[in-house]
Specification:
The protein is an alpha/beta fold. The protein has a single domain, classed as 3-Layer(aba) Sandwich (Rossmann fold). The chain is built from 9 helices and 9 strands. Strand 2, helix 4 and strand 3 form a beta-alpha-beta unit. Helix 6 crosses helix 8. The two termini are about 25 Å apart.
């Protein structure tokens, strides 16, 4: 697969901005703390799907590359992993791995190689896109007959649920996700994935998982970075004031606090017309 994106098409078009600026000074840390929250469950599901030696895999929205590394380990020297993102600068370390190819690609507008992959995986990508059906169509066309589409997107309704109180950080969740909607983020994105996979003709099922987060942990740091990033927009919209945001960050940093993450909904669909690839 060769990169076809240009400097003009590699970044979001006006009116279609992603929530998070890839040039934000803390974006690498945000991506890596996001991996700390979700990687264990994603890795477990990849093993459950039987990803193994010789598979050709596509990782869309590869971020800092943690799942690229995991896939490269699973497929071994006989396999291949293509990692795509709008911003590939953070993928330098995985680009040197055997069997790994890093490509700048815009899923919203650019096609993928047809019938080239045994597995196509994306995590927290579709929920930010304006035309999710078209994106799923591109992914499905990239699958070989019998190949697997593995989509992961969130339902944010459970975020910050806690034994502390019914309203623990709920004003923060409502404010942050309210402004995220303005950039096209869908707080029910994981539910949409299953519908789109079925509509694309796949045999699909879905399940959800959530993580209990302890304040002050690396996982909690992810949510603190989320709030730091959203802070200027929350303030500009007049949704919360500086004092409340400072208080919320302190609550997230307190190891005495525990709260629930979003539910990450994993949708797995199999493309008909061929035999599923199995481990040797």
């Amino acid at each position: 697969m060769r990169a076809r994106a240009t400097e003009e098409t590699a970044m979001p078009a006006p009116g279609q901005e992603y929530v998070f600026d890839p040039g934000w000074e803390k974006e690498t840390e945000r991506l890596r703390t996001n991996e700390a929250v979700w990687d264990p469950g994603t890795a477990e599901r990849l093993e459950r799907l039987g990803v193994g030696p010789g598979w050709n895999c596509l990782e869309i929205g590869a971020g800092s590359g943690s799942m690229v590394r995991r896939l490269a380990d699973l497929v071994g020297p006989a396999g291949r992993v293509v990692a795509t993102d709008l911003e590939t600068g953070r993928l330098g370390e995985v680009a040197g791995l055997r069997g790994v190819e890093v490509v700048r690609h815009d899923l919203r507008t650019e096609e993928l190689p047809a019938a080239a992959f045994d597995l196509v995986h994306s995590r927290m990508v579709l929920q930010h896109l304006p035309d999710r059906a078209a994106a799923v169509g591109r992914m499905v066309r990239a699958l070989r007959p019998g190949g697997l589409l593995f989509l992961e997107d969130t339902d944010s309704s459970t975020l910050f649920r806690s034994f502390l109180s019914e309203d623990f950080l709920q004003d923060v969740r409502a404010a942050g996700y309210g402004v995220m909607r303005e950039s096209g983020h869908d707080p029910r994105g994981g539910h949409v994935d299953l519908r789109l996979a079925l509509a694309a003709g796949l045999e699909a099922t879905a399940e959800g998982r959530a993580v209990m987060v302890r304040g002050g942990s690396e996982q909690a740091r992810h949510y603190m970075l989320w709030l730091e990033y959203m802070r200027p927009r929350i303030l500009a919209a007049g949704l919360l004031d500086e004092a409340r945001l400072d208080e919320a960050l302190a609550e997230m940093a307190d190891p005495a606090h525990h709260w629930l993450s979003q539910v990450l909904i994993s949708t797995v669909g199999r493309k008909p017309g061929g035999r599923a690839k199995a481990r040797p």
